[in-house]
Amino acid sequence: MLWDLFWTFFKLGFVSFGGGYAMIPLIEHEVLQHNWMTAAEFTDAVTLAGMAPGSVAMNSAVYIGYAASGWIGSAAASIGIVLPSIILMFLVATLFYRMYHNHWVQAALDGMKPAVMALIAYAAFNMAMHSGLWNGYARYTWFSIGIFAVMLFALIRWKMHPIAVILISGIAGIVLYV
Amino acid sequence: MQPSATLFNKSQLCLQLFLSFIKISPSTFGGGYAILPVIHREITDRRGWITPNEMHEITAIAGATPGGVAINIAALVGYRIAGIGGLLTSVAAISLPTVMIMLVLCTLVAVYRDSAVIEAALLGIQPAIIALIAYAAIRMRKDVLRSRMAWMTFGGSCILLLWTSLNPLVVIGCGMIAGCLVHYLQWKRAVSQAVQPIPSPSNPSPAKVRDVKITKMTS
User: Fold this and answer.
1) Which chain B residue is nearest to residue A28, measuring alpha carbons?
2) Which residues of B touch A173 (CB under 8 A)?
3) How far apart are CA B58 and CA B87, in angstroms?
4) What is the C-alpha separation between B13 and B43, in angstroms, rounded?
5) Is A104's CB within 8 Å of B183's CB?
């Protein structure tokens, strides 16, 4: 189990282009295949991972590891996801520092960017579907859509800080649902 | 890239690296590029470890390699300052605080799961997180969706993700192949355009052909 956690996140670490949010669909794919969580539980994991500081991929690894087998699981998963970064960065710093000016590498990276963007958009869409936004009871659905719309507007128009967004929506949740 | 420290002051540098990155770590809210100004201020302005120019190069490389941007930057800066020891120290320093915070959060949620207030707050935060993720995609739009091909790759990726159950990894791979393909076609067109406007045999300039080819490849 621990080895499984480590190995899964180790593999993911090597392909986590675009860091953070673009990783969510990849992690979800693995988590569902291993039966570590249901899709709804994974939504909770992303919520918590997004609330905390640091990379979302790393935070999800910590949470999933914790849910699967406690603190040791967290350690296994987070070491698994950070080790590829260490290996790759060491290789880049020692061997491939100049490789990034190669035009084929640049072309591949340019082509990858829209795909990464699609992954991020898909992560948002998927989370909305699995959180029961559309098939929950009416009051919850409308409140959720309202919070989503207001926060998105605040982010785009006023460049509101993510901490403020999370605090305000948390308070809104308490006011609306308690 | 060569580490610039001697063995003499290495351990002291590692300690300084550790302190710097452990301080930066909790401010990486929303992940990724939000941390850049903080890192730049600490590493180039305050500590003066790395020139702004080199820092921009490191940032570009860190963004292009797999893994979190913040972790990658920390690793490269650490290696530059104090070699492999510096790399390991910096990565540990930038990940430990956030892992700890996340663990505390996990334990708290496990304990207070049944509390109505916590449940309500989390229900409210959930759509906000979706908004944050959506915003990250929207923010990328300006830099990424500049050409028709980028739009097509984006659309194709969305279709693959929504209507097939392929491993999302395939989508990234397809994007890379598309990027290389476009690059190859552009290069080919540049070559043929350079060849075509020379119908007269009086002016067969092979040098011109080679010129265009080279400028197109490096641009």
Assistant:
1) B168
2) 120-125
3) 14
4) 13
5) yes
Touching check for A2 and chain B: CB below 8 Å? no
pLDDT at A10: 92
Instruction: Give the whole-angstrom CA distance, residue B58 versus residue B55.
Output: 5
A70 interfaces chain B, CB cutoff of 8 Å: no
Are B127 and B164 members of one domain? Answer: no
Q: Report how far residue A43's alpha carbon sits from residue B126's, in angstroms, rounded to the nearest whole number.
A: 8
B155 and B138 in a single domain? The answer is: no
Name the residue facing B1 among A93, A151, A173 (closest C-beta).
A93
Q: How far apart, in whole angstroms, are the C-alpha atoms of residue A100 and residue A89?
A: 13
Give this prediction's pTM: 0.78
Which residues in chain B have Cβ-Cβ distances shorter than 8 Å to A79? none
Å between A35 CA and nearest CA of chain B: 16
Judge if B94 and B161 occupy the same domain.
no
Name the domain count of chain B.
Answer: 2
B104 and B31 fall within a common domain: yes
Residue B115 DSSP one-character state: -
> Residue B213 in contact with residue B187, Cβ under 8 Å?
yes
Q: Are residues B123 and B63 in the same domain?
A: yes
Handedness of CA B17, B55, A83, B68 (dihedral sign): positive
Give me the domain span that covers residue B70. 1-144
| B184 within some domain | yes
**Nearest Cα to A169, choosing from A150, A155, A142?**
A150
Q: Is residue B109 part of a domain?
A: yes
Per-residue model confidence as pLDDT tens digits over B45-61:
888 888 887 887 787 77
Question: CA angle, A33 as apex, A32 and A35 as ends, to 5°?
Answer: 60
In a shared domain, residues B59 and B96: yes
Encoded tokens for A7: 């190995």
Across A143-153, average pLDDT: 89
| The residue to which tokens 């282009």 are assigned | A17
Residue A7 scores a pLDDT above 90: yes
Is residue B209 included in any domain, yes or no? no
* Residue B207 within a domain: no
Partner B contacted by A104 (CB < 8 A): yes
Instruction: Write down which residue in B144, B162, B185 finishes a domain.
Output: B144
Does B169 contact A173 at a Cβ distance shorter than 8 Å?
no
Residues of B in contact with A59 (CB under 8 A): 98, 102
Per-residue pLDDT tens for A122-147?
888 888 887 766 555 667 788 888 88
